[in-house]
Queue: 2 jobs
Job 1
Amino acid sequence: MIRVVVCGAMGRMGKAVLAVLRERAHGCVLAGAVEAARHPALGRDAFEAAGLGRADVPVSDDFARAIAEADVAVDFTHAASSVDHARAAAAAGKAIVIGSTGFTAEQTGAVRAAAGSVPCVLSPNMSVGVNLMFKTAADVAKVLGDEYDVEIVEVHHRFKKDSPSGTAVKLADAVAGALGRTMEDAGVYGRQGMVGERSRKEIGVFAVRAGDVVGEHTIVFGGMGERLEITHRAHSRDTFARGAVRAAAWVAGKPPGLYDMKAVLGL
């Protein structure tokens, strides 16, 4: 069995990962549950605190100790703490799966440095369907070329802090790369006023925040006389949790390096 530590265990995604581990999916079991210092759940049984029964694994604020007794960590916290956990995992010689978003270039570099000594899966979206969407969208863009305009719309719950979503950013980068562009040059994030005619090269990315939407992403390829749309809708966080546990099972024992879900899924 693969022993997994869940970081941010009492968060929305953390609890979803705990539920998947309770099933022992992909041969993974819960070995540790970590939360921030002074979290009200500290010391409680992790499964009981999440309403899942009993695990005999208490919620702790000591990640270094937890990862030392496990094989891999799954982290859905936020960028700054994910960097700290990646460094601690590297120091312990243990693998880590990171699903947090909103990383700066410096923070991504820190995760990459940690991955120089341990295997790390870093992905803004652990959904199998979304990662197929990345590949499909890039393949479509190559065929359609510059004759079709590209626009991306993402919708998430009102509590999401980063914008656009990490998934939308990766989707835009995948399509831009397929078209020989970069988002630094082609990206347009919102339009207002007399902006003039749309350029042929730009790629629009728009964020909507409303209610409790788990996550929706649509990429539009608009040509003269037709429009092609590819949409992914997440119905629950379960899809991300299952992808993360699948990644944890895959990355345990892999050589050091920075991997993504494309590698996990063999795409």
Job 2
Amino acid sequence: MQSAYVQRDQPEGVPPLSLTGERTLPDVPEENYWYRRHLVVYEWIARRVRGERVIDMASGEGYGSKVLARSAASVVGVEANPEAYEHARLRYTASNLRFERALVERFDQAADAVVFLQTIEHLNDPDTTLAHFRTLVGASGAVYVSTPNVLTLAPKGAQRSGNPWHVHEYRPEEFERLCRRQFRHVELYGLFYARKLRVHELALRAGWDRVHAALRLTEPFYRWFTPAISVHDFSLRQAPVSHLQRSLDLLAVCRP
């Protein structure tokens, strides 16, 4: 069954993608929270890969590869899904950007940086995949890996979220151990709420859910609030594992 949520206003000749929960999409207003939550990490990495050869593994819709290409010397977006690959190839064009349809475990090209965001939780054998990425960046490159923090993704008291695409969802200490098995140097960052989303978080703790429901404001409020979320409503900061329990997402910068 096709999703009720489909990308809007795509360029002529570019087939829109439907929201399935497997990947995040821009141009779907109801998905804007998740899109901005992922976009802020891509923009953070883009500032650190200036002039480098970058592989964006599991590039999905392609928006992240385009962001990386603004500063990188070259970017290859690697995506196995045929619909996502075709969409990205047609929509995002630049002289230093190309897309390849391939499995991330098998794509073999040297790079200065490998970017692998919000995908490791989909894998049965993450160790083998990270070991492969390590060989691609050599002795001096970096691998950027992100994943949702199960402690804030899953409902309170649950062991995991209900996302059917996720094989394993990580706690901060698990994620650190996974990365350190393959890399000697690992920096951990956490994504947290800021600005509007931080205020909203505090309001929820104070009982905002009961208030907007009682006043029948739920639909009009979130119809305005969700599309208004921007990358500035998130904050990415480095922290030890003990300080990442309340983070939304976990980002590891891994070096051999």
